[in-house]
Amino acid sequence: MTTPKKLFIKTYGCQMNVYDSERMSEALGGQGYVETKTPDDADMILLNTCHIREKAAEKVYSELGRLKGLKASNPDLKIGVAGCVAQAEGAEIMRRQPAVDLVVGPQSYHRLPEMEAKTRQGEKALDTDFPEEDKFEKLKSRPKARRAPSAFLTVQEGCDKFCAFCVVPYTRGAEASRPVARILDEARDLVERGVREITLLGQNVNAYHGTGPNGSDYTLAKLIWDLDKVDGLERIRFTTSHPNDMTEDLIEAHGTCSKLMPYLHLPVQSGSDKILKRMNRGHTAESYLRLIERIRGARPDILMSGDFIVGFPEETEVDFQATLDLVAEVNYGYAYSFKYSTRPGTPAAERAQVDAGEADDRLQRLQSLITRQQHSIQDGMVGRTVKVLFEKPGRQAGQMMGKSEYLHAVHVADAQVSVGEIKAVKIVDSLTNSLAGELV
Ligand code: 5AD
Ligand code: SF4
């Protein structure tokens, strides 16, 4: 038996990259690779990268600078760059860092085995095509090993919305949905391997419009209802959504589908109509607020989450105040806020930029409001009984960790539960980033 080669993958950015890294690892498994937790003894290092903000992209080059030193002690080591930086910068990566042997864009992962073989011949391998074939179909089915009870499943990729700040339409390409049957097969396979919760992924997941049986058209809600019938699957989530694609059937499902969890990530980016228009968002602050009213009408306890950008070109203090007002009105359980980062090739990159110090100050003010909301919602859970899906042992002996329906991290001391079980837990304390509970 030949000794397996070792693969080290480092993942940056969003959950879709987490999913893609898993699939790449499986694809290279067929080439005799097993994953290792450290780059030091790896035969292949893959950085699965993010291009969403400048900092994220620059991190890749500093990491490559550090990693290239490993080639001195291991001349057979191959270094690859995957993900959105690979897509956006292509061959430029190899020019900037000649230690890189392989560059593969997010639509070409199924070609990794051939590309790996090429690097073993001492050649460089580059593929950033948008091929016609379905990469997920070509990435051979997962090994049947048990896995963690919560899994991601990509159902849709790409984006046609062209928000003026965003690189995704360029790095991930046009919107495309996977066929229903393949998603259901993958979901059943995950459940057989111990998965209880699936988070459906897409850059614009609620724009999902896959093909169902007999060529019928599916919405995300229809897909969720099909998944609802999968025995053994207990929880369904989806992310990330655009307000304009929150169709009536999807809103309704939040009230009627018991497996659909009461948590919704619905980015709005800004509370100023002037800025929303310049961002090319296609909605107003008011229409977003009315939408949330309808969603809460269907599921009153739903926990809302969002994304915000501060310091978008031409954002004034008045615009920023409108964002604070919107946040105050929504009351988010979670929210992610970012300082605008100029991305080459996007429309907003050409416009007058906001002073960096001013943007930092706004970011701080927004984050402190969000943190207060987050904590007050978390504190409000004390005394309530939630259902926890247990995922792993906690740091202390006997402790178990899991997630509530609302995605709060919950830990229970001396819990007689196994990974994958869902149990009622009474919340007794609210800590900085988690809740403490007792089995009911
Ligand atoms: N600058 C800052 N934040 C950005 N995002 C997307 N593009 C940019 C950018 N150029 C944020 C948005 C998006 C999240 C994934 O990242 O808020 O919803
Ligand atoms: Fe990063 Fe966006 Fe690409 Fe995800 S889709 S990896 S967040 S650039």
Helix-strand layout with pairing:
Elements: E1 5-11, H1 15-29, E2 33-35, E3 44-49, H2 54-67, H3 70-73, E4 78-82, H4 83-89, H5 92-96, E5 102-104, H6 112-120, E6 125-127, H7 135-138, E7 150-154, E8 156-157, H8 168-171, E9 176-177, H9 180-192, E10 197-201, H10 220-228, E11 235-239, H11 248-256, E12 263-265, H12 273-278, H13 285-298, E13 303-310, H14 317-330, E14 334-339, H15 356-379, E15 385-393, E16 400-403, E17 409-412, E18 422-430, E19 435-439
Parallel strand pairs: 1-2, 1-3, 3-4, 4-5, 5-6, 7-10, 10-11, 12-13, 13-14, 17-19
Antiparallel strand pairs: 8-9, 15-16, 15-18, 16-17, 18-19
The structure holds 5'-deoxyadenosine and iron/sulfur cluster (SF4).
Iron/sulfur cluster (SF4) binds at residues 13-14, 16-17, 50-52, 83-84, 167-168, 171-172, 203.
Which percent bin holds the helix content? 25-40%
Q: What do we call the CATH topology of the largest domain?
A: pyruvate-formate lyase- activating enzyme
Low-confidence stretches: none
Note the beta-strand portion: 15-25%
Biggest sheet details: 6 strands, parallel
Average pLDDT works out at 95
The CATH class of the largest domain, by name, is Alpha Beta
Alpha-beta content class:
alpha/beta
Number of strands: 19
CATH architecture of the largest domain, by name, is Alpha-Beta Horseshoe
